[in-house]
Design a protein that fits this description.
Length: about 400
């Protein structure tokens, strides 16, 4: 049987290899402590679940949901955004519901790239960003993220020949996996760069609320939106998800806000592939976006405590990792003996201790020499994980 060549770049998957390693560790009797996946272990708030529950018994929610039926959700998303970032949004032309932000980053390249066009992606970066480009038969130019540059790309390093064929740039801050945050001045530079070179600018923004710094006086959010650097929405589109802020990962609900032409193009792709989410899930999302923020604040406090516990424990075993300002991750530079083989480190770690982490190479070439730990376990379990790591390193 012959398959399309576009599948070839998708065959090798470090995370599938890690899943196999975890399965083998459990089969060998290891007690698994899984810190490899960024899936929140915290529960969805009751008022969200109640909105979904009530919808289940309403027959009018049981059919296909077309764009017109998503109006209330789009209005809630626009209102949430305007309150948080102060930029007006038209819910009819500048908002699109998504089955998670990953759907947006995977499908938008189909609307933007012709075969052979370049997409400028962060390296390291979230794997689905590359996957969407491969499916569109595009080429990837990785923008290396280095600690000396605060894990921000240097646009002037991009070759002129690549820029001539570039149609798309994808950013994502707070950043997975490095946990870096970007200032508004960087976004302003990115917008000006993309305007000059006629490049569509995508910002994947799942960790908008998982930021541990204090709010600044002029921002209701401690981190900026790309649209604050592009308030006219001239080249930009931003993807949001309710997976992180509201612990709704399993419900698969997100949305895009941005340039109306980009929204329309993504809407055309989406109409070919799927309908919308079940209306009951959208009703739950409306409850999340318009309801009390206690759950978001509680989750932030929990992840802050977990971060502090894990960092302190790592420092106690002389693994001096910087304290992240955002996300649910620890991006740790590996000890010297493992600095060129993060895949082997993670495979051996889970095999011998049951502690599962994500190898940096799985996020791109520039991720080699690092490992990502997801803070998705209680503090006591995180402390136990570091004890096991300490024995492994010895």
């Amino acid at each position: 049987m012959q398959f399309a060549t576009r599948l070839q770049p998708l065959i090798s998957n470090v995370f599938a290899d890690m899943d196999t390693a975890k399965t083998m560790a459990v089969a060998a009797g290891r007690e698994l402590i899984d810190l490899s996946l960024g899936s929140s272990d915290l529960p969805t708030q009751n008022h969200i679940l109640e909105a979904i529950s009530q919808s289940l018994y309403d027959p009018s929610t049981h059919g296909y949901l077309l764009f017109r039926g998503t109006q209330n959700f789009r209005q809630a998303a626009a209102q949430w955004y305007e309150q948080k970032f102060g930029i007006p949004v038209n819910p009819e032309t500048e908002v699109l519901p998504l089955i998670g932000s990953q759907e947006g980053t995977a499908h938008l390249p189909l609307a933007i790239l012709n075969p052979g066009d370049f997409a400028l992606l962060l390296d390291p970066g979230y794997p689905s960003h590359a996957g969407g480009v491969y499916l569109a038969n595009g080429q990837i130019y990785p923008m290396p993220l280095k600690p000396e540059n605060n894990f921000l790309p240097v646009f002037s390093d991009i070759p002129v020949t690549v820029l001539a064929q570039s149609r798309l740039m994808v950013l994502s801050y707070p950043h997975n996996p490095t946990s870096a945050i970007a200032p508004l001045s960087f976004f302003q530079e990115a917008v000006a760069f993309c305007q000059h070179h006629n490049i569509v600018l995508v910002h994947d923004f799942p960790y908008v609320d998982l930021v541990f710094t204090e709010e600044t006086p002029n921002l209701k959010s401690p981190v900026p939106s790309i649209l604050q650097a592009d308030p006219e929405k001239s080249v930009s589109i931003e993807f949001f998800t309710l997976s992180k802020s509201y612990n709704m990962g399993g419900f698969r609900i997100g949305y895009a806000i941005g340039n109306s032409e980009l929204i329309q193009a993504l809407k055309q792709i989406k109409a070919t592939i799927d309908f919308n989410q079940y209306l009951g899930i959208l009703n739950g999302a409306i409850a999340a976006l318009t309801g009390p923020e206690n759950g978001v604040k509680s989750a932030l406090a929990i992840f802050r405590q977990r971060r502090d516990t894990f960092i302190k424990a790592l420092h106690s075993i002389d693994w001096n990792v910087p304290t992240p300002e955002a996300t649910m991750y620890i991006w740790a530079k590996l000890p010297t003996q493992w600095s060129h083989n993060s895949r082997e480190f993670c495979t051996e770690l889970v095999k011998k201790t049951g502690v599962a982490a994500s190898p940096g190479i799985g996020f791109g070439k520039s991720g080699e020499g690092y490992v990502r730990f997801a803070l998705v376990q209680e503090t006591k379990i995180l402390a136990t994980a570091v004890e096991r790591i300490s024995e492994f390193l010895k």
